[in-house]
Design brief:
185 residues, seven-stranded mixed beta sheet
């Protein structure tokens, strides 16, 4: 093997090692996420007002909380599905909350998120969770177990109990949404 080939193989190996955390943090599936009874969260909406899990808008509703970022390709790929869920189920009691984690400082991030959401017709609630890393969601939702990557989606029943946590987006959650909407509060 020539020196150039060895160098190229070494460079590819190094690149793969550096890329692994990025891909692990934006969509790889995790199956060992332990259940939690309730999800507690607090973040700011795009106007700067604080929104928490205790807000009246969530009472008696099925709530889908999506931890995401505009920099994460699997997160962005999930948006059309979330928009579809919002349009289809909002009047039946689904409330979607997208908590975004971005690289920019808060003011610039909220402006960029507003533009991003408008361009993609995201009419559901968008919150700014802070500057993103794998620990940022735990600062916004301290009882979220073992956050492993973006996107992470949490489905909460009308009774306020967490019913499903997905790391990565699963289109099959439509079935769970319909089951939860059919339950009495």
């Amino acid at each position: 093997m020539t020196a150039n080939r060895r160098n190229l193989r070494a460079e590819l190996l190094i690149a793969a090692l550096f890329a692994a955390p990025f891909f692990a943090s934006c969509g790889w599936r995790a199956t060992d996420v332990p259940p939690i009874e309730r999800l507690e969260f607090s973040a700011v909406d795009l106007s700067g007002a604080t929104v928490t899990h205790e807000d009246a808008r969530f009472k008696g509703k099925v709530v889908l909380v999506d931890f995401w970022g505009t920099w994460c390709p699997p997160c962005v790929e999930a948006i059309p599905h979330l928009v579809e869920f919002d349009r289809e189920y909002r009047d039946r009691g689904l409330e979607i909350v997208g908590i975004a984690f971005e690289a920019e400082p808060p003011e610039r991030a909220r402006i960029a998120l507003a533009d991003f959401a408008e361009a993609r017709e995201m009419e559901y609630l968008i919150l700014y969770g802070g500057q993103g890393d794998l620990q940022a969601p735990l600062r916004v939702a301290p009882n979220l177990p073992k956050f492993k990557g973006y996107p992470t989606t949490v489905l909460i029943g009308r009774d306020g109990r967490v019913r499903r946590i997905d790391v990565g987006f699963d289109r099959a959650m439509r079935r769970t949404i319909e089951e939860l909407l059919a339950e009495n509060p």
